Amino acid sequence: MGQGGHFMILYQSVVAVMLAGFLGMVVRNLRDYARIPSDAVPSRPEETLFVLIPARDEAENIRGCIEGWLQQEGVQLRLLALDDGSTDGTDRIITDIAAQDSRVSLLRGEPKPDGWAGKVWACSQLGEAAMAQGADWLLFVDADTRALPGLAVVSLHHAQTTGAGMVSTFPYQTTGTFPERVVLPMLHFLIITFLPIRMVWESPFPQLVAACGQFELLSPAAYRAVGGHASQPATFHDGLQLARRIKAAGYSVRLFDGSDRMACRMYAGGRAVWNGFTRNAYEGLGSFGSLVIMTMLQTVLFLLPFLFLLAAIAAPATSARTLPLWGWLCAGQVSLILLMRLLQARRFGHLDSVLLHPLSILFMVAIQWASFWKSLRKKPVIWKGRSYL
Q: Among 20, 60, 177, 214, whose CB has the most other CB atoms within 10 angstroms?
């Protein structure tokens, strides 16, 4: 065996050890990112949960979203939905529901000021209105989410018992088209594989945090302390940015697995997936350095093993082995990667996406760099009929 062969064995051994370490973190994260027991109840049931829904042209979604929350039991619940200049009759649907259930109110949004992202402006108005009405908890959810039975009880229980300033979860991502099946399951993969979940609430560093803008549960004290959504008027990653600010202000941020009690079809079709993720992927990473590190980790550890294994299969057999020694190491690496995906698929669904993993990594890296390129070029972002620089 030549010097090149020894180097290849050493390199593949190092990659295998690192992947084994990541597998250990995935196992630990799946334990820490836990589901709340079904028998959990709020410790202070008298506290009022205000569900706040920003809605712009959501006629297809808003009824299902609101009705899912109105079916929740075991909590004192109010619901405010803000119509943000819709042209598809969203406001009429909210008005019809409000006429039948006094817990529901329609707010009509004010014109968006310059320098604000549309959703953030809508959430800021909702937050102010809820606090003016004496909300004990503020829960911002997207109009395309669906709350399943028990979500309100377990989330409020978790917030009260942990004393968190903010609680978030990542819903089950409903998929329809092939691009959705390739990309959307990666939301859970990136969090569970690369972020030590326990450090979200144990570490004092705001950079070690995660949150999903589809579900932001906050105490009014924490929300006021950071200036609410007004502290981040131009962001397209309001959940993550709020979590960073709340943690920096000394409040705890908590995560729980609500994928069994909340669902969302985030984007429908490949174009929507691409436009949606390139809109804010780079902002979520936070810096060019983080982009480079994530690219290296994703490609070296979670993509190249598949390519090296193919190369080993194509290489001439040596002695009695069907693969060179380094090829067997690559086979072990691929097995570790697929085991990580299987463990996560068992929890979060999307078993059919496991074998699409190499393509998923390629898409994620492309999305992250395209998002960076958009930010570098200051190319306008078109979202919900509005243009942002």
A: 214
144 with 44, same domain? yes
- The answer to the question of residue 311 being in a domain is yes
Identify whether 314 is part of a domain. yes
Evaluate whether residue 282 is within a structural domain: no
In the sheet that 215-218 helps form, which strands lie side by side, from edge to edge? 104-108, 76-83, 48-55, 137-141, 215-218, 166-168, 253-255
From 170, 193, 334, 140, select the one nearest 260 (Cα to Cα): 170
Domain holding 226, by residue range, is: 34-171+212-268
CB atoms within 10 A of CB 245: 23
| Residue 25 shares a structural domain with residue 48 | no
Interatomic CA distance for residues 252 and 30, integer angstroms: 20
Q: What is the pTM of this model?
A: 0.91
Give the chain's largest Cα–Cα span: 80
CA atoms of 319 and 274, how far apart (whole Å): 48
